[in-house]
């Protein structure tokens, strides 16, 4: 897979020479076996997921990508800071890689941490075209561990990406298997009263949504490192060792709630950037995010890595064990979360204009009851966020039905816990604010920003050297992982200079989230929701950074526009 | 400090029986890790630098019964601790430190000493003043003089929440 131009010994002897590595990737049709089904997909070097690319901070990499498909392809290096022509988005960074062609990416590695790469063409990424990137820092890591594993999650679906998109366009609830049933209607009616229940259902119908819209593509098998739950990917450890787990969510559409029963996890990195360590029992990983955690298994026993989808429609499972073949119990999935009216609170822009305010108030009541008995079955109701001072997460709407709660009632990671270990940028006032309303119409499966989908939208123009504050207002009922290419997203968690930098920022339904960006990368970049079918449906923008060093500006002017894939 | 915050802290602090320091086991009489020493008896001085979040050095050899003068300097941007103890003592102390963080006594690079020194009644406080440890803001430097016992599983560690788990500890090798 990779050929180091310089051996370790040579680089020691000649420290003045720039470290350079050459890597080869082929893009291939591959077979993917989830244990539940076998399908054809796309992979790298004959496999999905592709290899783990290991780089060193300060290295100049050359990556030769050979397209063995009968269609164009591309590779985007997710989270890497690089010249925009190397960013791998057809139609924005370059024309793409044609069938039979070899394209050579060349860029310097200026950062360290856990990242990933994936195709940015069509639905090749949901079809399996992704792999992991691990970058070793120039200096020492600011933590200690004895061994490490990449834990790359995905939501493998039996249908191809093209087919899923066609079905969603035809019938947006095609893959929504958790729609409320007649039985559920009667059980709600008996506990909430018949009129409240009817009113509740009618109100939701008016909004052209269902409470089960937490996940709009269900029916997948969760996989870790290319293994389904039954195939049980296993990582070995010696009792007493500290193990670093590099979680990467390469799913097309699925958020996972991750825990390792019996082990405390210490989160030390988010989206490749070191954070002040946080001890947690469980964390939610958004699509395209990464989290690095350190665990310290002391006993001669196996532990299950359990990753339930946010909507509880599927799970991924792997094992940490002292010996191959050992395994630990796999917990049952918890009851599915249901959206509440709180998750809808930010929806003035949706076309449910015929809903009057009195019915809204009624719904609110009945819905809160519904949440208590429906989605939180068997749980201590007092644990739900709200007025009673119990755990709540400022990044979820108050009273949200999808706010996560740890399975053991312990600590669930919040964005509010993320604080930069070593802030990259000086804190300063933003030069201006740009509001981006995340919008959509579930009935037509259109997704957009400020009500305008990508093909109809003007690019967002930023000036080199400014610091822009982005205000995301989620007016839909789904969570959107917003990914700005090329520049860091400084997530406002209210920690001032300690605010963390990320490449992907999840915006929960009914919430407003702010992030700031130091506009320090000339060129043109993609900015989109990382849910594959939302991006394709139009929740996507081109960002043009104007100005900057003269040489780069000239290149931007002649940037090739072709393809139009996103 | 406003009154409501005071009440919260008072309620929390009325629980533990000791001050917020090295954990419950052993005040004065022969801790498993050793006991406070006198600087005049120290056989040598070891400089320990604290970074975000690790020590330099990360391993120290000592003779059984040796008295060592540690000069500890925080060269990081966050608050760090240097605490000599067994893993069990560190574990107990971490629960106390967690409370200190949750109640705002430690915030990023700052220690709010006014909150630590407050008299909580019944002789309790959130003082961090046991002789086996120092808690330092960035740029601060302090000494710990310690006489090690003959044996035991002893580490130096930072018990600010998450730091020990992330790897901010060092081994004491009793030769």
Automatic annotation (TrEMBL), chain A:
Keyword Electron transport carried by entry: no
Q: Which GO terms describe its molecular function?
A: copper ion binding; oxidoreductase activity
Basic and acidic residues composition bias: residue spans = 370-386
The signal sequence is 1-20
Q: Where is this region: Disordered?
A: 369-388
Is Metal-binding tagged as a keyword?
A: yes
Q: Which GO terms describe its cellular component?
A: periplasmic space
What sequence ranges are listed for the domain Plastocyanin-like? 35-138, 221-317, 428-546
Ordered alphabetically, the record's keywords are:
Copper, Metal-binding, Oxidoreductase, Signal
Q: One of this protein's Pfam families, by short name?
A: Cu-oxidase_3
Protein's recorded name? L-ascorbate oxidase
Supply the source organism for this entry: Marinobacter persicus
From TrEMBL, chain B:
Q: Which InterPro entries match?
A: BlueCu_1, Cu-binding_ET, Cupredoxin
Signal peptide bounds: 1-21
GO MF, one term, reads: electron transfer activity
Q: Which UniProt keywords apply?
A: Copper, Metal-binding, Signal
Provide the Blue (type 1) copper domain boundaries: 53-174
Q: Mind telling me what this protein is named? A: Uncharacterized copper-binding protein, cupredoxin-like subfamily
